[in-house]
Structures are given as C-alpha cells and as structure tokens.
Amino acid sequence: MPVPFSRELSFTNVSTDAMSGNDVLIMETLLKRSPLILNSSLNVNGLFDESDATAVSAFQSGTPGLSPATGVFDNATASALLGCCMQDGYEDDGTSARSLGMLYKIVVPLPSANRSVETSATLFDADNNAIMSFVVRTHGNREGGSMPWPDYGDGDYGTNALSSNGNTPTGLMYVDLNSPEPTDYEAEYG
Questions:
Q1: How far is CA 63 from CA 52, 56, 80, 152, in A?
Q2: How many CA atoms lie within 13 A of 129 on its CB side?
Q3: 118-125 and 130-137: which strand pairing?
Q4: Pick from 8, 19, 85, 93: CA 20 to 30 A from residue 26's CA?
Q5: Rounded to the nearest 5 degrees, what angle is found at the Cα of 14, between the Cα atoms of 13 and 19?
Q6: Residue 58 and residue 35: Cα distance in Å, rounded?
Q7: Residue 189, pLDDT score
C-alpha cells in the first residue's frame, strides 16, 4: 500500500469489527475531493462504514483500470486516489491580512504534490504589498523513510499533512509575528 496507507480497508456489517483510524480518515478526506464523489453521503469520521464502501465503489467505477468496483480500498485504489486527489487545490485568493484583522500574511506555494521541496514564500503586509520573499523547505515524509529529512532523492514524493507524520499543511493558517514570546522562552532561545 502506498504511504500514508498501510492496509486494505473494507466494510463489515458487524459494527464492533468496523475498521477505523487515521488511514480511514485520510481516505475519506481524499474521496471527498474527487469529482466522482461530490454528491455522496460519505461521512468523514474515521470509520469505514457503508457510505465509505459506496464511495470507494463509485471512485473505482469512474476510474479507468480499477474495475471491478468492489468497494474494497486496495493498493490500486489507494494509488489512484492519491494520484487524483492529493493536491488540496488551495490558492491564495488575494484577501488582505487587514481584512482578516491581521498585520501580515505569508504565502507558501507548493508547486506540486511533492511535499519535500524548496519553494519561495512571500511575506505580505496588511494591504497585500510584498515585503520580502524567502526560500522555505517544506517537509513531507519520505516513503520508506530510509533517508533523513531533507532528502530530495530519487523521485518519490513526500506526503503532506494528511499523513500522520508529514507536517507541511496547505490552506490558510495564522501565525503571529508581533506578540513577544513568554519570558520563560527568552532565556532558552533569546
């Protein structure tokens, strides 16, 4: 199974035996991004239930090379789902930091699904004027994990924040560049 998945997922009618966990939650989140599942009643709850099996079947039916549609989230289905839906599609909409009640905004674009890259981030003032650009290294978890980070190695992609140990989130988040650190941090880092 491709990272971040480690097992096949399937539905059982016995609720005490239902498969659950972060892998199920990741699968559900990615299925919700698929254009094949947009009008689904899929619940994103980390529990592989009947709605998950139905959504997996719909994804398998609509994806070339994944027939028959079994509703079992297997290796081929996981690979296809990661290929189609890993990018969250977030793009900066140009909203100013001021309109959000903030003084600054940082944009860190991710040019591909690979989360182990160097990219150029931009710091904007409250009115969306670029103050500075700087290089950042995003941090994904390598499949297999044999090399320490950062390892831009042999073409496999680092996973993103959907995995349990990749930590480059995408989307909009807040950071505070203005508040002083508590005094107990100053001695350690000051």
A1: 16, 10, 8, 30
A2: 4
A3: antiparallel
A4: 93
A5: 90
A6: 10
A7: 47
